[in-house]
């Protein structure tokens, strides 16, 4: 087989390419990209160690990365395949090369947030190039990245150590490789590998598969090596997934014991199972006690944080579906980005949710805004498009309730919370009190946000365990606490941990707090309230 079949020469500038792709956009504008990276570094880096409050899930991923490095395991507890492990393996790789380990930037979650900043900046470059290469418009690329950089939803969630952010980096990397249009098999393989890694970083990437597959099939349909490109893309997608399944099979944890699937994921009988966990995930819905509904989060959280992006992004997605069909040159990338946003939106509307599940919609809506703007200004010169971008963005920056300023409770204008509130100091004070006043032999029920802080640095608290493990993991529930308040010395309460205890039905912990507990430390700032409760027979 000749090399020309595997990697034929690219068409000359201005020639038509398959799948209705855009004309060659020319060299990347390095100065404009540098400006976008600077905006991203400031907007996401400023105050990121102090805001937002450390999240439970941030602690979970950092403690699992800790277990990879310190114990050679995927989790310090029973790993029940709640998520594929590539995300915290990446975190472990990042921490492993730092001289200070988990404390390189003060504490474990701060160290993870630095990686999130690097991932965000890499995603800024990838998004800029994806939009520019497909639309041929630098203004459209700048608009997409500007929204991506300064969206309050993005600033809030993309600072946090979340698998969603790592997943979207791999999705954007795959789109970037396809946007290069170099007609090489290795590029298609790389794009497929990126999507496969996204799947084993967080499984809900599967809802983006239709859009990515559509983009691949349409963009290379007229290439002579099309069959090879498509086949190797799918092969590369499946390799990481197959490796994950093989890992579970080697541990005899692929199928549930006796092939009895339990939609409640009650795995106390027999061993854990990858397929049973998938079965459980598929049977979760918005009415599940483990999550919140789409309508509730949309009204009470997401629209409050960033109504401009959500409204404009949803509108751009619908308009991209309509207008993309009318333009052969932009049809494929516009429809692909719209299909990805709709696919993930379908997931949000059907699943039991947590607040941060909205994070991938920020880059998806930003992509759709950029693509639609590129179509809208396709007959406008670059100067006119740039003026239009400025007219659109300046009001959103400076108007109250926009990206930068808001009204406080007194009706006064002030900068966004992300750039001024020092919330995480409360959690640092909580850890400091424990280390000065609680013996290391004490049995503590905690939230995951402080797990690594109590286990990694001296003095270490080997009997400090997350509340949900204290009620669900037999190794902790039956061997440490025995499901009884009498075996608990302290309950370290994080913000809104009480709500999690009630939703999870962790009644004996609530009994320990209410009937046998005494608050020995407490700190409150705004709607954030932390405490430490000493448990004893107070009756």
SSE blueprint:
Layout: H1 3-6, H2 30-45, H3 56-71, H4 86-96, H5 108-135, H6 138-150, H7 152-158, H8 163-180, H9 185-199, H10 209-219, H11 226-250, H12 274-282, H13 294-324, H14 331-350, H15 361-376, H16 382-398, E1 405-407, E2 413-415, H17 425-437, E3 444-446, H18 451-455, E4 464-466, H19 467-472, H20 474-481, E5 490-493, H21 497-503, H22 507-516, E6 517-525, E7 528-535
Parallel strand pairs: 3-4, 3-5
Antiparallel strand pairs: 1-2, 5-7, 6-7
How does the overall form come out from the CA principal axes? globular
Helix/strand class: alpha/beta
What is the N-to-C order of secondary-structure elements (H for helix, E for strand)?
A: HHHHHHHHHHHHHHHHEEHEHEHHEHHEE
State which percent range the strand residues make up: 5-15%
Note the total helix count: 22
Strand order of the largest sheet: 4-3-5-7-6
Total beta strands = 7
Give the % helix: 55-70%
Radius of gyration: 25 Å
Roughly what is the average pLDDT, rounded to an integer? 87
pLDDT under 50 segments (min length 5)? 1-23
The major sheet is characterized as: 5 strands, mixed
Q: Quote the distance from N terminus to C terminus.
A: 84 Å
Pfam families: PMT_2 (PF13231)
GO molecular function, one term: glycosyltransferase activity
Main location: membrane
InterPro entries: LipidA_mod_glycosyltrf_83, RgtA/B/C-like
């Amino acid at each position: 087989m000749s090399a020309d079949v595997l990697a034929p020469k690219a068409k000359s500038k201005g020639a038509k390419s398959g799948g209705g792709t855009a004309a060659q956009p020319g060299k990347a504008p390095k100065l404009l990209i540098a400006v976008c990276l600077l905006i991203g570094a400031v907007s996401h880096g400023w105050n990121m160690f102090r805001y937002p409050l450390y999240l439970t899930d941030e602690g979970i991923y950092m403690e699992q990365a800790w277990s990879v490095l310190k114990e050679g395991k995927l989790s310090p507890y029973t790993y029940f395949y709640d998520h594929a492990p590539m995300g915290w393996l990446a975190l472990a790789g990042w921490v492993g090369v730092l001289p200070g380990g988990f404390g390189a930037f003060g504490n474990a979650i701060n160290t993870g947030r630095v990686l999130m900043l690097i991932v965000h900046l890499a995603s800024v470059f990838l998004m800029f190039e994806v939009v520019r290469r497909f639309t041929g418009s630098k203004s459209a690329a700048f608009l997409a990245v500007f929204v991506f950089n300064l969206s309050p939803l993005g600033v809030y969630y993309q600072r946090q150590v979340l698998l969603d952010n790592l997943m979207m980096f791999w999705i954007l990397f795959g789109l970037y490789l396809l946007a290069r249009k170099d007609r090489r098999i290795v590029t298609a393989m790389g794009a497929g590998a990126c999507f496969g890694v996204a799947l084993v970083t967080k499984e809900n990437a599967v809802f983006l598969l239709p859009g990515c597959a559509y983009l691949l099939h349409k963009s290379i349909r007229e290439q002579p090596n099309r069959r090879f490109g498509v086949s190797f893309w799918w092969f590369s997608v499946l390799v990481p997934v197959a490796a994950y399944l093989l890992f579970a099979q080697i541990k005899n944890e692929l199928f549930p014991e006796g092939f009895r699937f339990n939609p409640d994921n009650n795995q106390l009988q027999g061993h854990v199972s990858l397929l049973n966990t998938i079965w459980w995930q598929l049977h979760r819905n918005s009415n599940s006690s483990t999550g919140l509904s789409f309508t509730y989060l949309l009204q009470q959280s997401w629209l409050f944080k960033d109504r401009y992006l959500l409204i404009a992004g949803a509108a751009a997605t619908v308009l991209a579906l309509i207008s993309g069909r009318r333009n052969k040159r932009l049809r494929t990338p516009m429809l692909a980005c719209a299909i990805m946003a709709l696919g993930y939106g379908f997931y949000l509307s059907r699943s039991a949710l947590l607040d941060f599940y909205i994070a991938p919609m920020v880059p998806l809506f930003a992509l759709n805004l950029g693509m639609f703007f590129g179509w809208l200004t396709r007959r406008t010169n670059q100067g006119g498009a740039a003026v239009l971008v400025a007219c659109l963005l300046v009001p959103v920056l400076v108007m109250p309730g926009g990206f930068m300023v808001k009204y406080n409770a007194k009706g006064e204008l002030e900068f966004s919370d992300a750039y001024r509130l020092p919330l995480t100091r409360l959690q640092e004070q909580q850890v400091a009190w424990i280390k000065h006043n609680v013996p290391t032999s004490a049995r503590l029920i905690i939230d995951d946000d402080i797990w690594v802080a109590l286990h990694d640095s001296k003095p270490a608290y080997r009997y400090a365990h997350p509340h949900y493990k204290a009620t669900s993991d037999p190794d902790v529930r039956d061997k440490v606490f025995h499901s009884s308040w009498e075996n608990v010395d302290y309950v370290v309460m994080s913000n809104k941990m009480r709500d999690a205890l009630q939703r999870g039905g962790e009644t004996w912990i609530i009994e320990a707090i209410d009937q046998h507990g005494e608050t020995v430390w407490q700190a409150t700032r705004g709607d954030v309230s932390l405490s430490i409760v000493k448990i004893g027979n107070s009756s």
